[in-house]
Design brief:
This protein is α+β, with helices and mostly antiparallel strands and about 120 residues long. It has 5 helices and 3 strands. The radius of gyration is 18 Å and the shape is globular.
């Protein structure tokens, strides 16, 4: 086995272990529900900001009955096919979702860190 193949095999083994350790749960959400919160949004952002293009931010409320067997993860760590499958599932099954794109000009105009404009727009508009 070549060095590159061994490195790739080691990396893949590590990723499988980490995925088991960090498998999504509803632990935090259930704690919030028990304290009286009724809507809990998860947020993810992608993009480079003012120097390299827009930032896209998505907020989603999955609800109390979300199946944690679906492997939600940072969008940048999922293959394109898996991202699309999860997008379709989230659109169909979530309580609510919103996707916002913030242009480099808007980021510059408000002088906020890139994700803040989109996060606020996704949550509060």
């Amino acid at each position: 086995m070549h060095v590159k193949e061994k490195q790739l095999e080691s990396r893949n083994a590590l990723m499988r272990v980490l995925q088991k350790i960090y498998r999504p749960t509803l632990e935090f959400e259930n704690a919030a529900y028990s304290r009286g919160f009724s809507k809990i949004a998860g947020i993810d952002e992608a993009g480079r900001g003012p120097l390299a293009g827009p930032v896209v931010v998505a907020a989603v409320i999955l609800g109390k009955n979300w199946n944690t067997e679906f492997e939600l993860n940072d969008s940048k760590q999922l293959p394109a096919k898996k991202r699309q499958e999860l997008f379709d599932l989230i659109c169909a099954e979530s309580s609510a979702f919103k996707i916002v794109s913030v242009s480099p000009q808007e980021i510059d105009r408000f002088k906020y860190p890139a994700g803040h404009n989109g996060r606020d727009a996704a949550l509060f508009s």
